[in-house]
């Protein structure tokens, strides 16, 4: 974690990419005479070694529809920048961009050899890193059911993101090649099998300069009650999101109350240690006892596997224990609670 919590919530890198890349796409659509400079021509890159064509071709979309779909995905994937910080998010984009650039050339040669179909040009834009973000999205974001269509098809908080990705996948003939290279590069970088995270990362000084330049431009208030990756398209989904927001507010209140009680108990025990050996109250008759509410799960009853999963997602062990305690050991509710608060 290289940035403060406020900077992470603003997600300046995601907003900057969304605005700058979308603006360049609109500008190129109005000035078609300059579009040839941003075409992703594999022959020019591999045979003529045009590095500028590689940089421009894999950055700006020439198709407005591709720019719109990739912009929606970048906006939804900003949750990773909020969770891990802008530097780790930028390092992931840089690492997958470099690895997928090599995979594009390799896959194009394989397709030409197997199917006698020479691949000379691929869709332009920051497409392979966007597809690479589906790897951590699939593995680390919990699947929370929202509603059902006709009682058969289950709609979750991740359904709309997959639909947008499928739309982007079918927009061009060779888009599947970029998607494949992006998914492979995302899996390699996310799992760190080849130690890519050790040498493909954004330097701290560059991140500090970008922090001072981008944060004033994309400053925003902390999101309140925003469901992760949720975009309600129907009244049922919006109603379910509202219920989730109320549940998260209740969990937050229980979380703060539990922390305050534990803090007060620690201070009281430190000031008055003799009260620890206070005699217990005599047991009351069975007829006079009243049924009490079931207690919240203690630290011993919380599954260590669930705590380990939350710790692997980037949360501290103390926060994971508190979230599982107030959510009654529900891993999905605890994850949503930690992501928002």
UniProtKB/TrEMBL annotation:
Intracellular or extracellular location(s): Membrane
Topology of the protein relative to the lipid bilayer: Multi-pass membrane protein
Protein name: UBA domain containing 2
Limits of the UBA domain: 301-341
A molecular-function term among this protein's GO annotations: serine-type endopeptidase activity
InterPro entries on file: Rhomboid-like_sf, UBA, UBA-like_sf, UBA_UBAC2
Major localization class: membrane
Transmembrane segments: 92-115, 121-139
Species annotation: Hippocampus comes
Top-rank taxon, per record: Eukaryota
Keywords in alphabetical order: Membrane, Transmembrane, Transmembrane helix
Region Disordered: start-end pairs: 273-300
Gene Ontology CC annotation, any one: membrane
């Amino acid at each position: 974690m290289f940035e403060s919590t406020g900077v992470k919530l603003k997600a300046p890198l995601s907003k900057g990419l969304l605005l700058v890349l979308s603006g360049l796409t609109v500008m190129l659509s109005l000035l078609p005479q300059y579009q040839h400079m941003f075409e992703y021509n594999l022959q020019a890159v591999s045979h003529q070694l045009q590095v500028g064509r590689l940089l421009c071709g894999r950055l700006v979309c020439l198709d407005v529809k591709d720019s719109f779909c990739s912009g929606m995905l970048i906006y939804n994937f900003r949750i990773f920048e909020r969770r891990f910080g802008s530097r780790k998010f930028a390092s992931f984009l840089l690492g997958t961009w470099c690895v997928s650039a090599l995979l594009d050339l390799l896959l194009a040669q394989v397709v030409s050899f197997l199917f006698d179909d020479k691949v000379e040009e691929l869709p332009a834009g920051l497409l392979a890193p966007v597809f690479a973000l589906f790897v951590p999205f699939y593995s680390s974001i919990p699947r929370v059911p929202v509603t059902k269509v006709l009682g058969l098809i289950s709609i979750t908080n991740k359904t709309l993101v997959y639909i947008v990705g499928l739309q982007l996948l079918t927009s061009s003939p060779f888009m599947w090649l970029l998607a494949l290279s992006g998914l492979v590069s995302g899996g390699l970088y996310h799992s760190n099998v080849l130690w890519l995270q050790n040498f493909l990362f954004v330097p701290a000084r560059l991140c500090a300069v970008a922090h001072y330049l981008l944060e004033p431009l994309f400053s925003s208030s902390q999101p309140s009650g925003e469901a992760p990756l949720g975009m309600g398209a129907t009244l049922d989904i919006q109603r379910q999101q509202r219920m989730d927001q109320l549940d998260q507010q209740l969990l937050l209140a229980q979380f703060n109350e539990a922390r305050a009680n534990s803090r007060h108990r620690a201070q009281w025990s430190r000031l008055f240690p003799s009260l620890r050996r206070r005699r217990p109250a005599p047991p009351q008759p069975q007829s006079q006892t009243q049924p009490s509410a079931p207690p919240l799960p203690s630290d011993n009853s919380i599954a260590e596997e669930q705590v380990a999963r939350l710790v692997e997602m980037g949360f501290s062990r103390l926060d994971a224990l508190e979230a599982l305690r107030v959510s009654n050991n529900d891993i999905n509710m605890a994850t949503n609670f930690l992501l928002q608060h």
